[in-house]
Structures are given as structure tokens and as C-alpha cells.
Amino acid sequence: MALAVRGILRERFYPVVQAKRFRGKINIQRPKPLHFDRAVFTELTKPWYLNPKRLKTPIELCSKPTDKIIEDVDNPYQRIIARELRERFDQSRLIAFYHRNSMNSDQQYKAYVAFIKAKMHIKTYGKKTLEMAVKDTKFEPVLDFYVSQNVMVFSPEPDIKQLLKVTKKFPQMVLLAAIFEGKFISKDEVMELHLIPNLQTAQAALVQTLNSATTTLTQQLNSHQNTLVSNLQERVKQLEEHK
Amino acid sequence: MNIQKFLLTRRFELPAKLLSVPAVSVFQSCGMKHFPAPPTYDHVEIPERPKLRFVDKVPYYAPGIKAPKMQKKLRLMRGPETVHNFLIHKQYGIMALGGGRLKWQHFEMMRLAIGRKIDPQRMFAVWRVDSPWQPLTRKGQGQRMGGGKGAIDHYVTPIKAGRIIVEVGGKCEYKEVEGFLRDVAMKLPFQAMAVSQEIMDKEKKEEEWREKNNQNYYTMKYVMQNNLGGCQRWMSPFDFKFLGKYL
């Protein structure tokens, strides 16, 4: 044991202190490949994020391209047109709704001219514009039959006869319904209204119906006298011809 | 061989495309065309000299003064740019993504390329870097070591990552300038990209999101600051400053 202690004391222990300075010269454009330890640290400290799809329902994960879905953008020009349409609806006494089958531009122009001559305006609007104009008003049911190619005719005067006269010339324009003096009427009702004559004639007809009882009575009472008078007149004519 | 047996024994795999139902149905609809108003640039003022000014090859020294030589100072290229890293005119520019040095030739290339492409009536460009000022020395070819420092060969401008090199502005959209700015950026001696104010804002927001939503608790910053795994043993002084983000 004493020998061991002497051995330790005899051996000198010189602590080695190495001052290390960083070389510091790096090539910023061509960086050195990382030391293994640093590379390991870099790899372990790489960030990772939760999958954004993880709490989504299948319908949300649907791969339908959402950028193709065009959202409604407020179009000031469309608003102006819709306002104009609304004014037309309020001011026109007769509005007719047509389904337009395909026709030539020539035919379309002829129809336009024919309606203009009858002092009516033929107008085509999109469903979106109509919706803007007519939503939350009494005219909202118009949207129900605005399905395919639709056309509207606005007339300041409630002239059904003229309307139907012009419509007859263009079989591609199919009358669907109309608004007469602010009331919705179907096609059959339009036909009925068409058959009604003007006010004076209608009044005359009414008067006739009211007087029908008395007129039939007078007719029946005077029937014999009338036949006698007519027969005598016939005889007078015969005698004159004979002369 | 019996056909039925054949069909039953074989496995048929139809490609998924044949059986899949398309998720999108396309139908034509004609709506009223919407022409939104174009963006106004009335707030933008175009300076008198819209093109990039000529940049000297050699910095001016008073007569009689010998041009001083300088240390290499690679630290001027290291790390992020903290001062000139935003757009003054808030429109478009070129941003450096890495460190490097711009020589006079690079300046000329940028000046001529941008000068050719911009419309001086409504667009302008400005330098966001100094003209070359740092002298770089070179010894003659085949010279042995020793004999003093070499003579000044040329001057450069050191650039740090994130620096704005050139700004382009005026009554123009990003799409107009992106093309030639990207071409110029590709020719620079470091990684660079064409940027606009929107891109920079977006990038900033994304960076914030990334920092906030990183699920890895052990970021390089955390590891280095807390000396995990004894990493401070091999970290350089620049690592202590940049915490692993920049070399």
C-alpha cells in the first residue's frame, strides 16, 4: 500500500488546458455539410404540424374544387337594371310572360318591331336580375315560371287584343301567363278577357239582359200583328211585280 | 377452359377512374358580366428620374488619399438583415434570400435589365443597396504566400439574407413587374426572389402561424438555449446569436 501511494505521488499530473477558438470562416454560398451531431439535432428539431384534415367531416373533405364555385359578387350594373325592371313592373298595366323557343335573329327582330308598333316593349332579363327586382314583392311568383328561355312584354295600356294579334304571328313565342292591372292571370283567363268586348258593348249587353224579360213578353204579344203586317207587305210586293 | 371457371378464378381490378362518380357537375349558366373597377394608383408619386441611377465601380476618395484595404468581414454576409428588410414604397422589389456580395457587374446587369423593361411614364425603380464600397484584394496569379496583403482588385457590397436590393413602383400591378424582376433575381449571385408587399405580409402571417402551431416542443432555439444534449459544446458564437436559423 505504501508503495502504491509513493507511486501516485511520484507521477506528475499535468492538466492539459486547450484554448479552442472558433475558426469562423464559412462559405456562405457553399455551406459545409453538417457535422453528424448537428445534423441529428437539426432533424430532431424539425417542426411538424397537425393535419388540418383530422377533425373534418367527410362532406368537408369532399374534393370538389371550391374555386370553380362562383360566389355572388355584388354587381352595381345589375342592381341598376333590376331597379329599372321593378319600375317597369309597377308602371305597366299589362305584362305578358312568354317562353321563347329558338328563333332566328331576323324573326326576333321582327317580333321586336311588331311589338314596338303596338306600343309594347319586349324585354329579356336574367333570372338573377329578376330575382333582385322582384324578391319580397307581390310579383315574386313570377320567378316560378322563369325556368328556360323567358321573355317579357310590357305594355302601358291593357290592350290584350293587340297583344294576342302580335303573338299569333310568332308561334315560337309561347304565352305562359300575364299580369293584368296588377293581377296575375293564367293563359286561359287571358283568352277569356280577349273575348270580352269593350265597355260600351258590355254595358249594352247588360242592359239587353236586364230588359230581356220585358222584350220577350212584348214580342210574344205582338207576334200575330207582326205576322199579319209582314204577309200584307209580301202581297203588296207581289201585286206591284205583276203590274 | 370453362369461361365461368375462368371468371371466378381470376381477380379483376378495374381502374378507379371507371367506377368513380365525378364530384363536379358542370353546367352552363349565363349571368350578367361583372367588370370590377381597376385598382387606382393615385397615391403613388413617380419621381423625376424613374430609372435606376448609374452606380460607380470604385467609391470616390478625395484626391491624394490612397484607397484603404479592408478585412474580409464575412460577418457582413452572415445572418438576417434587420434594417433594410421592408419595402419603402410598399409595392414591388427584389429580396435576397441568402447572403452574398454584389459586384459592379451585377449592378450594371440590374440597371440595364430593369431600365429596359419599365415604362418610365408610369413606373420607377430605386436602389436599396449602397454602391460597391468594400475592397476585395487579390494577389497576382501564381504568387506564393507572403509578401504582404494583395492589391485591391474590385469593390463589392455585402448582402445579408432578407435584404431588399431594388424596389420597383408606380402605376402598375405585380403581374407586370414579376416577370423581369424574377429574371433579374435569378441572375444575382445569391438566392433571391421577386416580392410584393402582399407576398411579404402573407409570408409574415404564415411564419407567425408556423411558430404558433408547431407541435414539436423541442425547437432548435429551445434546444440551444437549454443546452440539451450538450449542444453548446459544438455551437459557434453565431449559433448563440442566430440559434440555428442562419449559418
UniProtKB/TrEMBL annotation, chain B:
InterPro entries named in the record: Ribosomal_uL16, Ribosomal_uL16_bact-type, Ribosomal_uL16_dom, Ribosomal_uL16_sf
Coiled-coil ranges from the UniProt annotation: none
Gene3D superfamilies: Ribosomal protein L10e/L16
Gene Ontology molecular function, alphabetical: rRNA binding; structural constituent of ribosome
Keywords carried by this UniProt record: Mitochondrion, Ribonucleoprotein, Ribosomal protein, Transit peptide
Keyword Ribosomal protein annotated: yes
Listed Pfam families: Ribosomal_L16
Record's subcellular location: Mitochondrion
An annotated GO BP: mitochondrial translation
GO cellular component, one term: mitochondrial inner membrane
Family membership: Belongs to the universal ribosomal protein uL16 family.
PANTHER family assigned: 50S/60S RIBOSOMAL PROTEIN L16 (PTHR12220), LARGE RIBOSOMAL SUBUNIT PROTEIN UL16M (PTHR12220:SF13)
Name of the protein in question: Large ribosomal subunit protein uL16m
